[in-house]
Amino acid sequence: MAPRPSTYLPRLAAAAARALSVSARPNHPAPYPSPAATAPASSPHAFHAHLASVAPHLPSLLAALSRARAARLPLPPATRALAAAALLRHGRLPDALAHFSLLPDSDPTAPLPAPLCNSLLAALASSTGSLAHARKVLDRMLAGAVELDTVGFGVFIKAVSRKDGGLADVMWLVDVVGHQGSRINRSVAAAMVVDGMCREGRIEEAWHALEELRLHGWKPDFVAYRIVSEGFRAAGRVEEEGKILKQKRKLGVAPRKSEYGECMLALVSNRLVTEAKEMAEAVVLGDFPIDDDVLNVLVGSVSDIDVDGAAMFCKFMMGKGRFPSTEMLVRLCENLCKSKKGEEMWKIFSVLLEKGYCKNAKDYHLVVSFLGKAGKVREAYDVLKEVKRKRLEPDVSSYNALMEALCRDDLLRPAKKLWDEMFTSGCSPNLQTYNILITKFTEMGESEEVQQLFDHMFQKGVAPDVATYTSFISMLCQENKYEQALEIFKKSLAQDAEVASSVLSMFILALCKQGNFKVALTVMCSVPSGVENMNSHIIVLKNLTDIGEVEIAIEHLIWIRNNCSSNFQNIMNELMASLSTSASLQHVTKLIQYLHSHRLVDDADPWMKLMGNVYA
């Protein structure tokens, strides 16, 4: 196989990283296309262009295909192939296969596209129970003289090798592929074959495969021989292991770092992370060379499916005196936190710290924050002390990360000590620092501590946000300290009308939960006109209706009509919509009857029709 240009591997690594970043954020889809982009296409050519534009966004892609199917729009082979490739990238394997199956075999103007065929072949081969479908795709590729590549054929032949009697099928495939396999790296494919056999425990068959593949021109390299020798070593068969290692030195060839790197990156780009991980294990455990950009992609992608495997790759990288990229280290640490493997994270950070990974306060913050998330508060505190010893002046965000971890573990005394240390070190707390402590002391019912922190904020010129006010006010309402809660609310009014509006809704809800409608109505009647209060009016009216205080609700509606006439109809509309979730139809009926008698609800209102049906 001819070597690739030197710029190919970095480009492939970037492509794999992009594929990795998309698959890692399933909850953050691309923005929806504009209404013009979702308009039905009038011709096959226009639809092809439209489909290409929406292909990155799965809901829009599915909607476009659904509209084309409903309109019975004929799809040319190029459009059908585009749909299959896009669906495959989104992991919709059955849908991709369905579109691929509709592609014609004997159209000289539109031959089967090799990239799609190889990607689909690999995806089917790696999917449980889909090997038969993969064989049909391979048959079409062979019949149509479609060029096979290392990923497509390699993943397929590895899946075949894992089945009973796999060697016979493997050797038949090797002979059949013939000239259509010029793009296949035969040494890499040979390693994949014996790896599949060894993972199924068929080490004798794997040993035999080494010789058969060599005789057929698919010369195994050192990676393949090591895979088999390790299989015998694990089985305690030391004599056979030694023989295989002698064969390795005599018959094997040195693996090419770039070829394995290209294959692993291509596997990740095709969402075949398990296959990439298994190949990387053979390379890393054998201490064969591997590029940093490949290792970085592996650390990030593998951490999503096997965090221990990703940690192994990271340690291998550090053992060679190199560091993972910040992006991939963050990805790994996030998955270690999800897996509750704080001890493993600390081992990685210990090596990084020892080898001088942290050059500035920002690097140390990454370590402190993740140790805090993982519950390793003592270790995080020790790292923070190291920052101080190096006179790097830790950022407030590092203190916040540790403070949050301490509060989460109910370690309030160390949290207070850390608070004092911040001022001693000349680091001023920010809004997040105050909110962490106020939220925790609110949970503990420590109203005096919360009041002190709240007053301290104003002294230091730190403006509270909605979370600060609502935490404090909710606690005061639970303690029936309504006057104090009202004073806190007045501070939000003086600070900002938008903040006050959000705080008002939470304040009214807290009062209603305590059953103190008198204070709630008093507050609502005293809110300045510049503060948006429609939602708060609806909260108090709905709660009054739910508990049967319909007369009081009616009185408040009259007050709203007399004093907030411009907003009255909007409040009425929202109130009527909210009544569908009311606990008592009887109370709702009483309210509706009053509203109807005062011509605030007409006969066409859905509620009036519902009541008529109930009475009937």
UniProtKB/TrEMBL annotation:
Short name of one Pfam family for this protein?
PPR
Membrane-crossing residues? none
Keywords, A to Z? Answer: Repeat, Transit peptide
* Transit peptide recorded as keyword: yes
Keyword flag Repeat: yes
**Can you say where the PPR repeats lie in this chain?**
186-220, 360-394, 395-429, 430-464, 465-499
Concerning its family, UniProt says: Belongs to the PPR family. P subfamily.
Under what name is this protein listed? Pentatricopeptide repeat-containing protein
The scientific name of the source species is: Urochloa decumbens
The uppermost taxa in this organism's lineage are: Eukaryota, Viridiplantae, Streptophyta, Embryophyta, Tracheophyta
